[in-house]
C-alpha cells in the first residue's frame, strides 16, 4: 500500500466489453484508468526472464502437451464425476497420487458433506399433435415423476413477467415450458435455476426449460436448480433449443401440445473432499496465493471443459514450479474444489473452515470458464490491486494474454471468498463457444486444444509465481 | 448451338476452389475460360426486369417468409419421412394438396417400389475398461444383432489400406471401428457405405464408423450402407467423433476396449411415389426444365435441411410463376423425388420410365446440399452450356448468387439423368456447416434461415424461368 504512493509508471487497465456468453456480469470501462506503481513496475518487469522460462518449459519444452495428455488420461479413465459419487472420490485419490509422483508432499484433503443427486431413467414423449421422442436432461435435485409419468398439456412462457401476469387457470395442471431468449448465461440461467418453483407456485405440475445455450445439435444442457421452501417440488428438466422451438411453433399455430414426462432420481448425502496442495513459500509461508478449479462435474460428457481444464492447469502450477526449482516467497496453494456444480459446496466448506485465517489469502485464482487460449485475467479487488495485476499481465504479450478485465465477482467457487474482501481473479480466455458444450454430453476432450492448454498452464503458473514472489502484498 | 458461332460477348466461368465439406468432387479452374454468346447475351440481359420482379416478390414482397413458414409447417407436422413409411406417403399427399391450393392442376405421381428399412432398439455400451453408454445410430439396411447382442473387443482402423494389410487373426471375432480423418464428405463416406462388408470379409463380427462429419456435440450421423454380395452381413452403426476419439485414445494407451452392441431393425418393400408438377410451356411444352428436391429423409431430426429446403424452393418455382402469370416457352417441371436416401431409388425409377423422352429434358436442376444463402450453380454440361448459364447468373449479382462452379456430376438424384448427357446443375450455396447436421437429430428448422430461404426461392425460380424461356436450348 505504501509503495503505491511512490509509484510513477502508468499502468493501464485494458478495456473490455461484455464477454459473449460469459457466466458472470462484467463491468465495461469506457475510459482508461491510470495508476502509479513506481519502483514496483521495475520489480515486476524483472520477472520477464522467469516468465519466458516458464512459457518455454510449458509450451515448447518438456511440459509441452502434458496438460492435455494428463487431462485426457484422467477424464478417459473416470468419465463424469458427479458430487457424491464413488467415481469422484476415486478421481480425487488419483489426483493426489499423480501429484505425489511429482515429489510434492504437502497434500491434504478436508472432508465436506455433499449432496448426491443421482439421475435415473428419463423419457419425454410428445403425444399430441403427433408422437415424437424429445431429448431431455433432468435438472439437478429434480424429484421423480409418479411411476406412470406426468401427461399434460404444455404452456409456453417466454419470461417471468409473462408468468406473473398469466391467470392461474391457464397454468394449473399443465407443464410449463420456459422458452427464454438466450442473452448471456448469467442473464438467462434463472429460468433453469428458479423455474420449477415459480411454475409450481402457479399450479404447474412439471416444468421444462429451453437449454441455456446459444447453439445446439439437439443437445440438452443439464444444471442445478433449487426448490424454494413451502412450494410443491415438481419434476423439472431441460430440453433442446430445437424441441423448444418446435413446441412453441406448434402452439403458436393454435394446436395443443401434450407431453408425457417420466423421470426417476434419487438423493442422499455423502462425504467428499476438497484437496489442498501446498508449495510452501520460502519466506512467508503463511501468506497464500491460491490457484484452483473444481474436480466434480455434471453426470454427462467427461467434464473435460467444466472443469477438467481448470483442474489441470491448477495442478500444473506447483508441478512446474517444483520441476523448475522456483520457490516463491509466499506459499502457492492449489485447491481442487469438490461439489461445485451442486452449489459451491466445497468452497463454502473451505471458507468456513479457514475463516479465521482469511487474512492469509493474499490472492485467489480460479479457472472455471474454459481453458481455451488465455487472454488475461478477470480481476476483482480495489484499484491498486488491479494496477499491480495489470502490470504483471504486461509480461504475457508473447502469448497474447495481457488483458485485464474488471470483474466485481470473478469466478464461481472463489466468489465465496472474494465476497469477504479477498482480491482474486478468474482466467479470462477465448471461450465464445463455451456454452455450446456446457453441461452436455459434448463436454469431452474434443473441446480441448493441446496448445491452448499449454499456454493456459504457462500463464497460470507464471502469474501465480509472480504474485507469490513480489515484494508487496496485493492490496485490499 | 448455331448462335454460339455468332457471339462476341465474353462470358466468364467464375473460379472456385473445392467447397469445404462438399459431397461431390468439384473441378477447380486455375484460369478463366472465355466464350462468345453474341446476341444471346443481350437477350439474357433483357431478363433483368423479370429477375428483379421475382426477387422482389420472394424476398420483400408477398412471398417473403413463405418458404420458411411452409417448410416449418410441413416438417413440424410430419417430422422425419423415411423411405417406405406411411408418414412419407402422407407428406406426399400433403404436398399435392398444398400445390393444388395454388390452382396448379398438372400434378401426377408415379409409383416406385422402395426399400423400407426400419430402425428398432439400439444400444451400445462400453464394458471395458469402464462401463459407459455410447451414442449410436445404426446405418441404413443394417441387420440386427442376435437378441443377446454382440460383445467383443474393438480394433481401430484408420483407413482401408490399414485394413487390407492387417492379419485376419487381428480382426476375426472383433468389432472394427473405422476412425478415418474427415477430409470431405465425398472423400470419407466410403467408410460408412462400404465399411461393414470390408470388415466382414476379414472376419469382423460387427463394424462401427466415426460419424462422417467435421464437428459434433456428441452427435451420431446415420446414412446408407450397402452389403456386398457373398459377404456375411454384419450389424453396423455410426458413433460420435467424441467416442471414436475416446476409444482410439484408450487403445493407443495399451488398454483393451470391449463393447456390447444391441441393434434391431426390420426390412420390407413398399410402394412410394415420385411427384411431378408441370407448369406447361406456352410454346414448347414438350421441352422440360426440371427443378427438384427429395421429399424422403432419414428417420432422425426433421429432414428440414436434407432435403426439406430443396423440396420447398422447388415447390415454390411453379407457385411463384403461376402467381406472377409468368408462363415461359418451355414447361417447368417440379419433381419431388422419393427414396433418395436409400439409393436414389425414385430418380432411377423416373429415368427408366421416361428414358425414351430423355431428349425432352432441356436442363435439370436439383437442390440437395442445403438451402443456405444461394451463391450460384454447380453446372454439369459442355462448355457452351456453362457459358449460357454463367451469363444468366450475372443477373443475380444483387443477391450475390452469380458464381458458376464447374461440376462434372452435380446433385445426387439428378446424376442418374445427367450421366446420360443431359445438362444440369445443383444449387451452390453457403453450406460450410451442412455436415454438422447432416443425417442427425439436429437436422431441424433451427438450421434454416428465413431470409436465405427467400433468396434461394427467388434464385431457383428466376433461373428456371429464364432457361425455360430463352430462345436457345441448352447445348449438349
Automatic annotation (TrEMBL), chains A, B:
Chief location category: endoplasmic reticulum
One BP annotation, GO: proteolysis
Annotated coiled-coil segments of the chain: none
Keyword Secreted: yes
Localization annotation: Endoplasmic reticulum; Golgi apparatus; Lysosome; Secreted
Residues in Peptidase M28 domain copies: 274-456
Gene Ontology CC annotation, any one: endoplasmic reticulum
Pfam families: Peptidase_M28 (PF04389)
Alphabetic keyword roster: Carboxypeptidase, Endoplasmic reticulum, Glycoprotein, Golgi apparatus, Hydrolase, Lysosome, Metal-binding, Metalloprotease, Protease, Secreted, Signal, Zinc, Zymogen
GO MF annotations in UniProt: carboxypeptidase activity; metal ion binding; metallodipeptidase activity
Residues in the signal sequence: 1-21
InterPro entries for this protein: CPQ, Peptidase_M28
PANTHER family linked: CARBOXYPEPTIDASE Q (PTHR12053:SF3), PROTEASE FAMILY M28 PLASMA GLUTAMATE CARBOXYPEPTIDASE-RELATED (PTHR12053)
UniProt family annotation: Belongs to the peptidase M28 family.
Subunit structure: Homodimer. The monomeric form is inactive while the homodimer is active.
Protein name: Carboxypeptidase Q
Organism: Galleria mellonella
Gene label: LOC113520153
